[in-house]
Amino acid sequence: MQAIWLMLLLVVNIALGNSDIDALLELKKGIKNDPFGLVLNSWDSKSLDSDQCPQNWYGILCSEGNVLSITLDNAGLVGEFNFLAISTLTMLHNLSLVNNNFSGSMLHISPMKSLKYLDLSLNKLTGSLPPSFVELSSLVYLNLSSNEFSGTIPNVFHKLDQLMYLDFHGNSFSGDIMDIFYQMGSVLHVDLSNNRFSGTLDLGLGDVSFLSSIQHLNVSHNSLVGELFAHDGMPYLDNLEIFDATNNQLVGRIPSFTFVVSLRILRLACNQLTGSLPEALLKESSMVLSELDLSQNKLEGFIGSITSMTLRKLNISSNKLSGPIPLKVGHCAIIDLSNNVLSGNMSRIKYWGNYVEVIQLSTNFLSGTLPNETTQFLRIHQKKERTSKQDATTSDIVQESTSPSNRRNLESLPPSQSDDTGNINPTLMKAKDPELVKNEEGTSSPMSILSASNPSPSTSHQFENPSSLKVSSPDKLVGDLHLFDGSLMLTAEELSCAPAEVIGRSCHGTLYKATLESGHVLAVKWLREGITKGKKELAREIKKLGTIKHPSLVSLLGCYLGPKEHERLIISNYMNAYSLDIYLHEADKRNLHPLSVDERLRVAVEVARCLLYLHTEKAIPHGNLKSTNILIETPNRNVLLTDYSLHRILTAAGTSEQILNAGALGYRPPEFARSTKPCPSLKSDVYAFGVVLLELLSGRKSGEIVSGISGVVELTEWVRFLAEQGRSNQCFEKSLVENHNGEGPFMILENMLKVALRCILPASERPDMKTVFDDLSTIRES
Length: 782
Description:
By secondary structure, this protein is α/β, with parallel strands linked by helices.
C-alpha cells in the first residue's frame, strides 16, 4: 500500500509541479459552479505574494509558500472535490468544506500527516472510508456527517491516537459498532447516530482509555440490539456527560448508571427496555443529571418520589407505568407521564412546587381536578375530556412554556414577556380541538389549565389558538399601587379586574399581558416569592428604576405591593415587538424579514447607546442583557431594552439565581465563576454585550453547544477557537455571507467581530461601554 501511494504522489508531483499553488489550481478545476464567485474569481495564479503565497485567495491561509489551511465553508460550491490534487500540501493542517455540494469519494485522500482538522460535513460525498485514513495520524477533529458515505469502517482509528472529536452522523455506514469502539483511544466526542450500525452496545469490552475519556456518545437511530453493557455490567465512564441511544432495538433492564458521576443527559427512548424505573436516576444522589428520556419502552411499576435537585426534563411517556402520579418531582420543569396506566387523583400535583413549566398526563386513568388553593400553577388553563382508554377520564395538563418561540401566533413577544431561554420547548402539545379550549375557559378552578390529548412529544405541535392561553387575573388587589407616569390613570381594582394573558416566565416571575377597559395594554410582571427585598426597600428601589427614561428603554410605569410577599407586581407598557432572539432564530417561521448586515450593526449601535446611557448617566448596569431582552419594533425596527437593572430589587439569593441563569445561557462573564458573591457590574454588561454581538454575527444561540472540541463548548469559546485558527469567516451566519454584495458587508462583519472579541476579554482587559459604542459608531459611519 505504501508503495502504491509513493507512485501516485510521484505522478501527481510530475503533473502539477512542486508548488502548493499548482495544487490549488488543480483543485480549482474540479469546481463546476461557484454561485458567489468566491473561489473562481479570487484563485488567480497571477495574484501571489513575494513568498509565493496566494494573495487574497478566498479561504486560503498560507505562510512562506506553504498552504496551511483551506476553508471553503458555506460557499455553495458544486463539483467533484479532488483529494488527490491536495496530496502535495505537506503543511496543510486544516481542511474545512462544510455545507457545499461537493461530490466524489475519499478513495484517493493522501496520507497528509500534518492534517489536524478535517470537516467535510453537509456535502454529497459518497463511497466508503479508505484504509489510507490510518495515515492521517495527526487528526484531532474529524467530521464527515451529513453526506452519503456507506460501507463498513476499516481498522484505522487505533493509529489516530490524537483524535478527540469524531462525527459520522447522517450517513449510511454499517457494520458492528463495537468494531469501532475497540479501536478508540482517548476520544472525547463520538456521534455515530443516524447510520446503519448493528451489533450490541457492550462498552465494557472497549479500550480502557476510551471509557475514561469519552464525554459525548451518540449512537441513536441505528439497529443496535441486545442488552446495554451486558458483558461486564455498567462500565466506569468517568467523564461521560451525554449518552444517547434513542431509537434502536435494545432490550433488558436499564443499568443504574450509578458511577457515571458526570452524566447530564441520558436518552434511551424508542427501544424495548423492560423492568422498573432506575430509581437512582431520580434521586438526589443522581449528581448532575438534567435530562432523562426513557419514553416509548416497556417499563413497568410505580413512579416513586423524584427528589433530584438537578433533573429538569423527564420523559417516561408511552410505557406501562402504573400507580399514582409521584408526590414530589424535585426541580423538574418539563414532565411527560402520558400514555401510561397511571391512576388516582391528580390533586397530588399541588405538592410539586413552582419549578414545573410543562406537564403531560394524557392517556392515563387519572381523575379529579386541581384544588382551588393551589397557586404555583397560575399560568395554566384546564379542560377535561373522555378518552378511549376504557372510557376513563384523561386529564392532561400543559403548563405553557413562556419562551417567545412557544407563542408563535401571539402578535408581540417582548423579551421581558419571555422566559430565560428563548428556546422552543419540544414537548408543548396542541389541543385536539382549539374551539373546545375556547369554550371551556374558566371551568372548575380559578387557575386555568390547558388539557391536550396528544400523548407523545415526538409528534408535538405548537398552540395554534392564542385564546387558549388566557388565564384568570390575580385575586382582588388590596395593597398599594404606585404609579411613576402621570399619564397612566389606573387603580388597583381596575388592574385586578383586567383580563390577563400569560405571555412569559423567567427567573424573576410570571409576565401577564393585561388589557384595561380603556384599551391600554400593560405588561405586568408578578414577581416570584422569596427573591425580592423587603417591602420598603423594594418600593424605594422600584421608584428609582421608574425615574430612568431613555428612548431605547421600556421604562417601568409603576408597581403594586400587596400585604403578602408573593403579591408584588411591576408594571410597564406592553410593546408590540419581537425579540432579537426571534429575529435571529425564528424569522422564517414568523414570516419576518431577516436582519441584514446593516440592520444588525444598527441594533448593536442602539443597544450600545442605551447601555452607555445607563453606565454614564445613571451609573448602573443593565445586569440582565441577553437577546431575549432586546426588542425590535416593526415596521421601523426601533430597538428597545427591557428588564433593566432588576438586580436592584432582588435579594442576594435572587441575584445569584439571575446570574446562574445568565451562566446557563452563556452570558455570564468568567470572573463571576471565581466570586463567592457575584453581582452585575458595568464590566459584566460589556461581556454580555459581546455575547449578543456574537449572536448577531453567527446567528447561533449564546449557550449553544457548537463544537465537540475539548474546551470548546459555548459560542464565545467556539469563536475564539476559529479566530485563533485564522478561520474567523466561519463565525458568520451563512445568509450574511451568501447575500453580500462586494466587500463592504464583509468588512462590517469582520470589524464587529473584532469589537465582540474585545468585549469578552478578561475583565482587566475589557473595554468600557464608551469605547465599544465609539468603535461601533465608527464602523457604521465608514
